[in-house]
Amino acid sequence: MSFPHVLVLTYDHEEDPHAARVCELLAERGARITMFNPENFQRTSRVDLFYLEGAVRRHLHTGGEVVDLEDFTAMWWRRPMPMVPDPALTDKAIAEYTVKECQALLTGLWEHLRCPQLPARESVFRKAGHKPYQLALAAELGFLIPETVITTNGEAFLDFHDRHDGRIITKPLNIPWVEGVGDGIMVTRPCEPVAARDVTHTDALRFCPVIVQEQIPKRVELRVTVVGRQIFAAEIHSQVANRARFDWRRYDTHVTPHLIHHLPDEVAARCLVLMDRLGLRYGAMDLIVTPDGRYVFLEINPNGQWLWIERLTGLPISEAICDLLLEGA
């Protein structure tokens, strides 16, 4: 058995409690951990790729150490930040060009590592995170999904609005926030109902796509975290607070009960099949349980958060992630 050595791609270790928790567990089990954030790659790190006499050697210089990339037994794509140019590059065009070239180098580097990767190789989990693809695949596998239109067409939006008597919600296709608005503030874009005033601005849809879905009545919402072949399902009683009725991310954990949920065998099996079809070894699914007991699939985040679920329910999700990262050794 090789000595476990895990590469963790994330932002500042102290600011990412999810990475900190799992790395603590890895260290307790004797694993070596290399933390790497490509954000400041140009300033703080170097890469060497040698192709000599039929052999390939690849080295990462970071954190004061030189690491042979063949030494890694697992890689965890946690939450690395986008690369920024070195301030020494004062020409904007040159700076942007060098960042693109460096990013291409690292993308290829991670893609071709031979060790297992969590949640998957980047090319796989990027595709898996595409919401239209998820919905089509989930429906194919037998999940109930909300009636949905994804559109840049105001007339299609209005037809859908009338079909559901205005009881619809909207959510972003890909990025749930806008940075640098007005005075540089960040504006989040949660799932929210459509108000009467919104209908008067449908022509603006031509600028940006939106996901529009029927409102599904909720008994509880579920966060179903899948780690390898283990399923950790938690109920989020979002309906007890008016603020969280449409998007549980607005909840107050002090007043929103979180409980362990036991998925029916059929639903659990379908979750695992979806993971297999998406090529993921980790995923955080959002589902609704309706008042009459139906399970409705909403989406899956290939790298979604879990730590608050673990703390409120006791589900050992971090332990499961640690176990999965050590399988490569």
Protein architecture, described:
There is one protein chain. This protein folds into 3 domains: 5-115, no CATH class; 126-130 and 217-315, D-amino Acid Aminotransferase, Chain A, domain 1 (2-Layer Sandwich); 147-214, Dna Ligase, domain 1 (2-Layer Sandwich). The longest helix has 20 residues, at 92-111. The strands form 5 sheets. Strands 16-15-14-17-18 form a 5-stranded antiparallel sheet. A 4-stranded parallel sheet has the order 2-1-6-7, with helices on one face. The chain is globular and about 70 Å long. It has helices at 17-28, 41-44, 92-111, 122-128, 131-140, 154-163, 196-199, 265-278, 307-313, 317-326, and strands at residues 5-10, 32-36, 46-52, 55-62, 65-68, 74-79, 117-118, 148-151, 168-171, 177-181, 185-188, 192-193, 210-214, 220-227, 230-236, 258-260, 282-289, 295-301. It is built from 10 helices and 18 strands. The protein has 329 residues and is of the alpha+beta class. It is 30% helix and 29% strand.
Query: What Rg, in angstroms, do the CA atoms define?
Result: 22 Å
Oligomeric category: single chain
**Overall 3D shape:** globular
Order of helices and strands: EHEHEEEEHEHHEHEEEEHEEEEHEEHH
Q: Any low-confidence stretches, pLDDT <50, length ≥5? A: none
Q: Pairing-aware structural class of the strands and helices?
A: alpha+beta
Question: What topology, given as strand order, has the largest sheet?
Answer: 16-15-14-17-18
The proportion of strand residues reads 25-35%
Distance between the termini: 6 Å
Tell me about the largest β-sheet.
Answer: 5 strands, antiparallel
Share of helix among residues? 25-40%
Give the count of helical stretches.
Answer: 10
Q: Could you tell me the mean pLDDT? A: 91
The overall strand count is 18
Please, how many domains? Answer: 3
